[in-house]
Amino acid sequence: MAVMSAKSWADQVIKQDEIDRYLVDGKDFIDEQEIITKIKNNANPDKGYIRNIMDKALSIKTLSLDETAALINLKDEDLWQELYEAGNKIKKDVYDNRVVFFAPLYCSNLCVNSCKYCGFRVENSQEKRKILSMEEVRKETEALIDEGHKRLIVVYGEHPSSDIDYITETIKNIYSVQRISPKTGRPSSIRRVNVNAAPLSIADLKRLKEAGIGTFQVFQETYDRKLYRDLHPSGPKSNYRWRLYALHRAMEAGIDDFAIGALFGLNDWRFEVMGLLAHARDLERQFGIGPHTISFPRLTAASGSSISTNPKYRVSDEDFKKLVTILRLSVPYTGLIITARERAELRDDIVKVGCTQMDASTKIGIGSYSEKTSQQDKEKQQFMLGDTRSLEEVIHKLAEDGTITSFCTAGYRCGRTGDKIMDMLKECSEGKFCKLNAVLTYKEYLDDFASPETQKLGEALILKEMDEIKNNPFYTKTGLINTLDKYYDRISKGDSDLFI
Ligand code: SAM
Ligand code: SF4
Fold first, then answer.
1. Residue 39 domain flag
2. Strands, E, within 347-494: which ranges?
3. Is residue 382 predicted with pLDDT exceeding 70?
4. Which of 87, 212, 254, 363 could be a cystine partner for 325, CB 3.0 to 4.6 Å?
5. 198 lines ligand 1 (CB under 6 A)
6. For all residues of the chain together, what is the average pLDDT?
């Protein structure tokens, strides 16, 4: 077959019928006027109404767009303190006192698109282009496993050389890597590969499913059509609706674990929060389940992008905390991800209002984990990181605050995905399984990778956690406590990868 040019490859990416089939009367689910009107109509919400909304969220019910719009308009700082506490409580009720860790693995920065905020865009001649060979993918994976990671999110530019063949090949190679912990001699590997890639066709998504993907993640960046057009002048990404329905297609291809996000700083954050909720609600309406996670990256300085260094709608730290809290309350059972784009102190604070997942020891240069380059190697990075702490440093800090780190990957390996996990989250029972798996994976991490100081701190936390579990009738009645005891003992003696 003749080699296709990047341009003709890009021209055949979009399948119009895989957009049209989801439209209702020719319309998509983002009604910009409706969003603006709801924000306007809910200005100056009174205290009683806000407290009712808070109670609804605390009973783990999704908020309506009007209710979210009221939170968006809230000015009363005392009530905000109550909302932060409510966010924390909801997170604990649904997800318990644990945070799941992952690391991003950037495989390629070749890209046919022109996103004005991204260092990888095709016009950026400052960017050194690189695509990892399979050997390099394995080397990167080795470095990540040696740090203690069990979950990755693999990230790709959109380009013929990182098409679905390349993506599935990288996933296969990542899963194939086995390492031995120098501390215990126990085998270790990546147990879950999530993917952040361009929107794919249903046929390609089916291949992704076969490759054993965890979550498929696509960020809309902005839900504002005109702004979207301005920021994405060419390439397949210029098609707003192809992206808008990326996760509807995933669902149709059998990937029932998917994630949405918006890039904050491009537009008024209030509009984008409403857009995210409209997106989550449409997925729920059409398929009965919402996104597994929502991400809210803030625009970060990228090479050669003036939009990224000087965002028109820069979100202050204060507003950022508010928007995360609003999301926590609006979709109480959806995971929230805070990334290392944010500064360490801010992450440590914001994780408390309801985040469920964080990355750590993150490097976003292509090949940076195995090359041991400086974290801030500008040449190969997509943007600059705010938190460059190692995985152990973040785990240590969380342990000091009483939070357990989880490397649990049991959910998708036990078939607890899609509507099954959503139902369990809504009933707050998924958190109960996760609590057990968090203890087991935390213990495994501490034994295999932690320094004596972190191990001591972590094990004290595990003891406290075990006490709580033993005193909870759910675990005694179901007999799960016995399974936990048995598995914990086996992990302590060197067994690995046990989950409930
Ligand atoms: N190429 C695929 C796409 O655009 O969906 C996936 C990879 S892209 C690098 C992943 C995400 O990085 C984008 O969805 C965008 O939200 C985020 N991103 C791009 N430029 C950024 C910047 N300057 N600061 C923070 N996040 C950025
Ligand atoms: Fe390419 Fe994604 Fe960057 Fe846009 S955001 S330039 S599509 S890598």
1. no
2. 357-359, 404-406
3. no
4. 87
5. yes
6. 92
